[in-house]
Amino acid sequence: MFVFMNPTARNVAAFRSWRGIRAPWLGTKNVWRLFANTGFIRERTLAAILRLAPADWSPAFAERLYREIAGNGGYITNLAKCTQADARPLPDRVFRAYLHLMHREILLVRPKCIVTFGNQVSSVLLGKPIRVSVYKNAEHETLRIGTHTFPVYPVHYPVGQGQRNMPLAIRRIRNIIRASAS
What we know:
alpha/beta
């Protein structure tokens, strides 16, 4: 399970007119490089994404993309289930307002592991200050929801201003995948 912040207004799934699945990152480009480089989507799928303008995404393409991710063991979600017009950071209180929904989603999905992107999402989900830069290889935290526990791997936020952290995020996710397989 990959947990991001909140949907961007550039995500076509945030448009009222969108009739497809309401899923993160539809109509965007950069984050899909991370998923191609970590084996969750094929290079051919990434090439198709990079050719599409946001308005050219179709509900059928979005469904195929998310089926491919699921087929490779991935699940992508956002901590906050709201969007805004620009990229300014949301205050922690907004994320905390959605935390109970995130917990319910985690219990429904029952992920083998959770990858959180960025200090803010990691800190809110885990309920304590987190600095993703201190986590190496497959180091993780543990999230307890009722009687269930889940390993949580804080990772650098790989898009927007965090684009410069993409190689760090890819390297860490590859380490997490290797550790999970053994």
